[in-house]
Hints:
Blueprint: E1 8-11, H1 17-28, E2 32-37, H2 40-52, E3 56-61, H3 67-81, E4 86-89, H4 104-132, E5 135-140, H5 153-172, E6 178-185, H6 199-212, H7 217-227, E7 237-240
Parallel strand pairs: 1-2, 1-4, 2-3, 4-5, 5-6, 6-7
Amino acid sequence: xxxxxxxxxxxxxxxxxxGEATARLLAQRGAAVVLSARRSERIDAxxxxxxxxxxxxxTCVVDVTKAEDLRxxxxxxxxxxxxxxxxxxxxxxxxxxxxxxxxxxxxSAMIDVNLRGTLNGIAAALPAFxxxxxxxxxxxxxxxxxxVSPSMAVYAATKNAVRTVHEGLRKESTDGVVxxxxxxxxxxxxxxxDSMADPQVRExxxxxxxxxxxxxxxxxxxVAFAIEQPADVEIGEINVRPTVQA
Length: 246
């Protein structure tokens, strides 16, 4: 029987949506979780709720654009629970708009959070994984990178860059120490649309989420499936879409 019992999992962007759902599900299945995000009051409340339900949870305020914050997250997991088995790179933003709008600030923000944030997580976690002799990197990517839609070019580019980094890390880690999993959600009912700059794109995304979106727990189950596998099994990539999404 596969199990998450005893796993130590740190999660970025855990103040809501996919990150919160993942933290709650993994804790229910026996993992100890370290929730991180910029909103301290929110992650503290979620962690307290997990503990009241018999789970193990700690928190760490993190801005993923800051490398030192990710190092502190890894240190928090080790200090609180003795090790870090999994880092879930979930934090992401999507201030999407047509390229013709020339939203260079939005482009830079997506590069900083979606790509650089993931690289900061890798840089923080890899030394610990290597020292322990095992570790698992899970990143939430997006199906937007598989079929690029209008207004999503830069967002998709950042997600595809993370996908490429994952594949490179996988090929550098065939000694069995580090496993990698990229999970690409489709329409999930989260607050991601709130970060979208273009009002028409934001409204369309919200309508699509309302019409066809599935709960964040669907992605959380995919995360759990990937990390509960035995050490000699690596789930490289999972796409999680609503059945009605084209």
